[in-house]
Specification:
CATH architecture of the largest domain: Up-down Bundle
CATH superfamily of the largest domain: MFS general substrate transporter like domains
Strand content: under 5%
Radius of gyration: 25 Å
Number of strands: 5
Order of helices and strands: HHHHHHEHEEEHEHHHHHHHHHHHHHH
Oligomer: single chain
Strand order of the largest sheet: 1-5-4-3-2
Length: 564
């Protein structure tokens, strides 16, 4: 039961003659707020140098450790949605939406505390677990509500709600960048490297200052230029200054809470006997009508059908293929094209790449879900997979060509393929609630959809694990191979240690791929562009499996229908 009568389900039943088009704005507003999770990769560059500020320092978190925060949030989204689906049907969307606002906004505030204290577990607890619960609660309430209001346009209804989730990065990405830049403070500068002469130890670089020996980090002229035109190359004191990310978390947490709580109180639900005027399921196009059930299956019985598990595989592998890329989108663009096209692929360009993903993700959610009302859900999913497989396979091709023959043409091809992929990634999310309603009926969409979203939880682990582990393996191999071609004297001069100490220098973040390339022989091919190739091949294979699962889906047998 709700905590007090203001949240009761019977308080938000719409009166006769209520205009159903008043409901979508509240649904879209909540999904826009929680959809900002798709802009997580904008936080990565700041989080991995929270101590060093201008460059990663030995005490800083690795990319692999912060990428998993996004995964934990998605896992908690799926698990909380599985619980919240049935609960939503009992208490109504206002109560669920309000708790979602508290969890999502509060998760940011706890995460900010974790960044300030440099306690990674607090960041996982706040943004990952509590924020992830807010994601799940906020995700299911708009979808179920809109499908009940639009049984005649199920795909469009789901597309409207979930369009907001995909579009969250459109607002979130530039907002994250703006707030991080606004709160950014440079660390203490000690001087050029040749003047300060920091000393290498097993725990990193240290320099003698007026306050004693301090840990420091060093940036090159190229790295300084990427920060700003006024940034000086040289030695900076670790633990001074601020990347601005903690302060940004505080501002975002408060802002998202306020928007979501207002939207939750704007919800209305239709009466049990309400339906659009002059509408029956027979009015649907023939392609869509083939899968539309004339009976109702509840959430418990749905688990006894093969259709539920085939849909689970379809959703899981479609999401896995895209979600790993989402978590590292900004980093991936910089690594593949940043060194060969530095005048084009700047930090701002990479941030806009994430923004563009959000735009096409949002467009795909509404376009493909609406198209599925005419094409049918099964045919729409077949298009996702038959087009997605060659698109994923094209990304390593563009990256390899860029490494061998740098050109803006390969960047354009990579960019276009990625955007097309994410229209179908978003479309897959938006089409699944209508697919559920077709197969199992509309009454228990919330409960079944919530349980199906456990596939998202699995994908939230599988996708980032695949992309980070495969990238890490490729990176280690590339560093070892590149170091073999570097002059030992130049290496010692640049990094303060010998080639025998390569592993220690890499672990301390003193040696990076970009820094090694600065002292590599002329004509050496930059391996950065190939770090993600094996991942893309794996994603294409997962889509092929999902394609087979989708082809096996057929209408639910009448034995699973509830008695009328």
């Amino acid at each position: 039961m709700p905590f007090f009568p203001l949240f009761a389900k019977n308080q938000i039943v719409a009166p006769p003659g209520f205009n159903r088009w008043k409901v979508p704005p509240a649904s879209i507003a909540i999904h826009l707020c929680i959809g900002s999770v798709y802009a997580w990769s904008n936080f990565n560059p700041a989080l991995i140098k929270a101590m060093g500020v201008v460059a990663p320092a030995p005490g800083d978190w690795s990319l692999g450790s912060v990428v998993w925060i996004f995964s934990v949030a998605i896992v908690c989204l799926g698990l909380s949605a599985a619980f919240a689906g049935n609960w939503l049907e009992r208490v109504g969307p206002r109560a669920v939406g309000s708790i979602a606002a508290v969890c999502w906004g509060g998760g940011f505030l706890i995460g900010a505390l974790g960044i300030w204290l440099h306690q990674l577990w607090l960041l996982y607890l706040g943004y990952g677990v509590i924020g992830g619960i807010g994601l799940g609660l906020g995700y299911v309430s708009p979808v179920s509500t809109l499908i009940k209001w639009f049984p005649d346009r199920r795909g469009m209804a789901a597309g409207m709600a979930i369009m907001g989730f995909g579009g969250g990065a459109i607002i979130g990405a530039p907002l994250n960048d703006f707030l991080i830049d606004y709160f950014y403070r440079m660390p203490q500068y000690l001087g050029p490297q040749e003047v300060v002469k920091p000393q290498l130890t097993n725990t990193g670089l240290f320099a003698v200052t007026e306050s004693g020996e301090r840990p420091v980090t060093v940036i090159s002229e190229q790295e300084a230029a990427r920060i700003s035109a006024r940034t000086k190359p040289g030695v900076y004191v670790v633990g001074t200054g601020s990347t601005g990310v903690a302060e940004a978390f505080v501002a975002l947490g408060i802002g998202y809470f306020l928007v979501m709580i207002v939207a939750a109180f704007s919800y209305r639900i239709p009466a049990d006997d309400w339906k659009p005027a002059d509408w029956t399921p027979e009015n649907a196009p023939s392609a869509a009508r083939r899968m539309i059930s004339q009976g109702t299956v509840d959430a418990t019985r749905a688990l006894q059908t093969p259709q539920f598990y085939l849909l689970w595989i379809v959703l899981c592998f479609n999401v896995t293929a895209g979600i790993g890329v989402l978590g590292v989108a900004k980093t991936m663009m910089t690594e593949i094209f940043g060194s060969t096209l530095p005048e084009i692929v700047t930090a701002k360009f990479a941030g806009r790449f994430v923004l563009a993903i959000g735009i096409f993700n949002m467009i795909g959610r509404f376009f493909w879900a609406s198209a599925s009302d005419q094409l049918g859900r099964q045919r729409t999913y077949m298009l996702y997979f038959l087009l997605g497989i060659p698109l994923y396979l094209s990304l390593p091709l563009f990256a390899a060509q860029q490494s061998a023959f740098p050109s803006i043409v390969w960047l354009a091809g990579f960019y276009i393929s990625t955007m097309l992929i994410f229209t179908m990634y978003g479309g897959g999310f938006a089409t699944i609630p209508a697919y559920i309603a077709d197969l199992f009926g509309t009454k228990y969409v919330g409960g079944i959809h919530g349980r199906l979203l456990t596939a998202w939880s699995v994908a939230g682990v599988l996708g980032p694990w695949a992309i980070t582990s495969l990238r890490e393996s490729s990176l280690k191999h590339a560093l070892r191979e590149l170091a073999k071609n570097v002059d030992p004297m130049k290496f010692a001069e640049a990094f303060g240690g010998s080639l025998d100490q390569l592993d220690i220098l890499v672990a301390n973040k003193t040696v990076t791929l970009s820094k090694l390339m600065l002292i590599a022989p002329a004509g050496t091919m930059n391996p950065s562009a190939t770090l993600y190739n094996s991942t893309m091949y794996l994603m294409a294979g997962l889509l092929a499996i999902a394609c087979i699962a989708n082809a096996l889906i057929f209408p639910v047998h009448a034995k699973h229908h509830l008695p009328k």
